[in-house]
Amino acid sequence: MSFHYHKRITVIPKVLHLNISSRGWSWTLGSRRAHITRDRHGRRTTSVRLPGGFSWRRHSHRR
Fold first, then answer.
1. What do you get for the CA distance between the two ends of the chain, in Å?
2. In DSSP terms, which residues pair with 16 in a beta bridge?
3. Sign of the CA dihedral 29, 30, 31, 36?
4. How far does CA 20 lie from the centroid of its chain?
């Protein structure tokens, strides 16, 4: 059995969040429908929720 920790801190309501977990931290900019996340290693994830339960996600790696 393993334990995990996750905490989401709102910096600017509905716009900017700091996510802290047992694996590190990341920033999330945007709403729940469309947002960009950047982690502590510089990797970026863009996510968009589409109608009907579908979603689109793209990962970008720092070069």
1. 36
2. 12, 29
3. negative
4. 10
Return the structure tokens found at 38. 């950047």
Please tell me the predicted confidence (pLDDT) of residue 60. 87
pLDDT, averaged per 10 consecutive residues of the chain (63 residues), comes to 87 94 93 91 92 91 67
User: How far, in Å, are 18, 26, 44, 59 from residue 22 at the CA level?
Assistant: 14, 11, 19, 21
For 18-36, b/e burial (b = at least 16 CB within 10 A) is: eeeeeeeebebebeeeebe
Residue whose C-alpha is closest to residue 32's, from 45, 14, 18, 20: 14
CA distance 34 to 32: 6
**pTM (predicted TM-score):** 0.72
In which residue are the tokens 């982690």 written? 39
